[in-house]
Amino acid sequence: MTGPHDDLFDRLHAAADSVPPSTLDLPVVLLTSRRKATARRAATGTAVLTVCAVLGVGVASGLPSQVVHDLAPASSSETLTTEIVHREVALGITAVAEAATYELPDETVVLDTGIETGAHGDRFLLISTVEFEAGGSVASVDREDPATIKKMADLGYAPLERQRIQVAAGDEAELRRLRGGAEPTTVVVSTLGSAAVVDTDGGRFVFGTTFSEHVDDEPGTFVSSWDPFTQVDGSTGTFLIAPTLPIPQRALAPFALALTKETSFAPVMAASFTADYSATGPCTERVDGCAVSYDAQSRAAIQSQVEDPRWAALVESVPDEDVVVMGSGSSRELFRCRAGVHDVESMFREGLTTEDEDQIIGATADLAQCKVERSPRGDGSLRVGS
Length: 386
Fold this sequence. Notes:
Elements: H1 8-15, H2 37-41, E1 49-51, E2 57-58, H3 65-71, E3 78-81, E4 85-90, E5 93-98, E6 100-103, E7 109-116, E8 123-133, H4 146-154, E9 160-170, H5 172-179, E10 186-189, E11 195-200, E12 203-211, E13 214-215, E14 218-230, E15 236-243, E16 252-259, E17 267-273, E18 278-280, E19 291-295, E20 300-303, H6 309-317, E21 321-326, E22 333-339, E23 344-348, H7 354-363, E24 372-374, E25 382-384
Parallel strand pairs: 1-18, 11-19
Antiparallel strand pairs: 2-9, 3-6, 4-5, 5-16, 6-7, 7-8, 8-9, 9-10, 11-12, 12-16, 13-14, 14-15, 14-17, 17-18, 19-20, 21-22, 22-23, 24-25
């Protein structure tokens, strides 16, 4: 990577050094990162970084709860906890360590962060819902239409389940409405991604999601910053360990931060490290509400129409293709290739056998810049790039 943020991914790697390596025994490890649409939503392309996307999993059977919810509103919620705990995690940064949590029969979960918006007695509320779309191959139809979902389910295609987290604002009466199954009146961020910044007259707030994991035996995540900021112990760094708010039986967990002018913290992305992978998802699209201006008095949320130019530079530095081919049944690295915008860097292991060469050719056959072929000169040599 090049530019002022060329160590971003190195620091992500370093933060995950204590994570045990994957035990997967794959003869060929092929890692590719396509820029354009994919890279704009996830500045990845390395072995330890994959997109923190909304997960799609199959539902066993029966009518999906969202369809049932459309037919009959949910009844009163179950109170999981009423305790709200705020904790200083860095100079000028207060995190929600615990939120009042309420679960509805349709698996919607409402969290009261206790962070005040600055007007009407409103607080920021987080809402995790379970949404469905039709399973199977469905073309030119609304996959989220209840009739389509039911039709495909009757044909044996289980609906796909997705978790969506929203940021809303409301007072005690609004919280009661949400607990009764109503839709939020004031939506600040419609679909919460990795990290969204909400600016109000009273301050700046950061909300985000990450995979539900633990840091030092506590629910938490790493949030990286464009600029160095002062940690809680007085040291300077670019990574914040923020507590997360686990959602029962769900993969994604939100976090909420309140910032003061004392901090220079400027969030880039959130990442959670597990035994097999780390996950991250930058907020790069305007429609995702990465930056929101919220007027607490009028309860109006306006999404920024300007994309942070720093992301453009970072995405440009991400390789189109990042490939490693390993030897069958061994830990030998046969071939490595990184193809960027302007150049291709590749390396072959010395002493390759014909079998090794055939394996490399087969593993890279679907690539463009890192595709390996035998030279047309007929001298037995290999060439990289089609």
